[in-house]
Amino acid sequence: MPSNNSVLDERILILAPYGRDAEVIYQFLSRNGFECGAVPHFDTMVSELSNGAGACVIAEEVLQDSGVRQLINWLEAQEPWSDFPFVVLISKGSSIATSTARSTFDQLGNIVLLERPLNSETLRSAAASALRGRRRQYEARKILQERKLAAEKLRDSQVQLLQLNETLESRIEERTRALAQANDRLMTEVIELGSTRPSPPIRSAQDLAGKKAGG
What whole-number distance in Å separates Cα of residue 190 and Cα of residue 20? Predict the structure, then answer.
C-alpha cells in the first residue's frame, strides 16, 4: 500500500475554475486510476504543491490572473532535481504568440499544450506522460539523497579516523614518555646502588707475599 507521501507525490492538481472543466477532468482522470485534486486558485495550488504533487492541469485563461506570480515564485525555488510538469489547456484557435503568453509559458518551463475540446485519450496520455517524467525526477532526487548520505558517512568516517590517529599518537607519546621516565629511574637506581656498595679491601704487596708463603 503506498504511503501518504507517495500518494501526494503522484497527485495531479487541476486548476480550471471557470465552467465545468475541473469537474469533468477530475472525474475522467479519477476513473482512469489517477489521484487528483481540484484547486480553486493559485494560493491553494502553491500550498498543495508544497505538500506534494506529480503534475498540474491548468486552464490557459487562469494564467492571466496576477496570482500566477505565486506559482512562478514556487517554481523558481525548486530543488535542482525538480522540473515540475504542467498540462496547459488552450482554446481552439487560441493565439499563444503574444509576448505575455510566451513569457508565462517560458516561466512555467516544462509544459504540454492540449487544445480544447479535449480528446479523452489525449488527456489520459498527457497526464500519464507528465507523471512518468515526474517519477524520473523522483529517482534523480533519490540518487542525489543517497550520494549526499554517502558523502556524509565518508566525511564522518574520515573525522573518526583522524580522531583515532590523534588518539593513537597521543598514547604512543605517553607510552614513550613513561618508558623514558622508567629508564631514567632505573639508571638512577643503578648509579645509587653502585655508589653505596662497599669496595673490597685493598691489600698491600706484603700481605699478598705472606699469603703466598703460607699457602
Answer: 107
